[in-house]
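Module 6 notes. Inverse folding takes a fixed backbone as the condition and produces residue identities as the prediction. Think of it as a translation problem where the source language is geometry and the target language is the twenty amino acids. Below is one complete input and output pair. Work through it position by position during the lab.
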């Protein structure tokens, strides 16, 4: 990995939304590689994937401080004016003015639907999930 690529990935970690990074890493990167490998550069799917790559980079700007020493690179710090993902107030558990623990019950119940079905199917098959 080049020094510039390392700095860019580190900056993306600061400014990109988690779900955008997941889509990029799990879908866009792999699909882009397959398209190029299969010689489909002039295809509509390449155009679509390329536009998503360009859109993902809209807010990626800032500074990354690096230290290069004996063939290794260390990130010393990063900053970005466009980073809106981190807020000390929102990440602190000291103030819970906008959050109530009961807000999570609907989300947990929805997520539990598939987990209950999975657990019931495993139990019906005689598999004890507590031993997994």
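Target side of the pair, the amino acids:
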């Amino acid at each position: 990995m080049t020094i510039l690529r390392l700095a860019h990935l580190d900056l993306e970690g600061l400014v990109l939304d988690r779900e955008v990074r997941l889509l990029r890493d799990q879908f866009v990167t792999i699909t882009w590689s397959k398209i190029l490998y299969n010689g489909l550069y002039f295809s509509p799917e390449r155009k679509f994937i390329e536009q998503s790559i360009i859109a993902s980079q809209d807010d990626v700007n800032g500074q990354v401080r690096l230290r290069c020493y004996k063939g290794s690179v260390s990130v010393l710090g990063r900053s970005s004016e466009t980073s809106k993902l981190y807020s000390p107030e929102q990440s602190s558990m000291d103030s819970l003015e906008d959050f109530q623990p009961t807000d999570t019950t609907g989300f947990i119940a929805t997520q539990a639907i598939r987990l209950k079905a999975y657990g019931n199917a495993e139990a019906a098959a005689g598999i004890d999930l507590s031993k997994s």
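Reference fact for the lab report: Residues 1-98 form a domain with the Argininosuccinate synthetase, chain A, domain 2 fold (CATH 3.90.1260.10).
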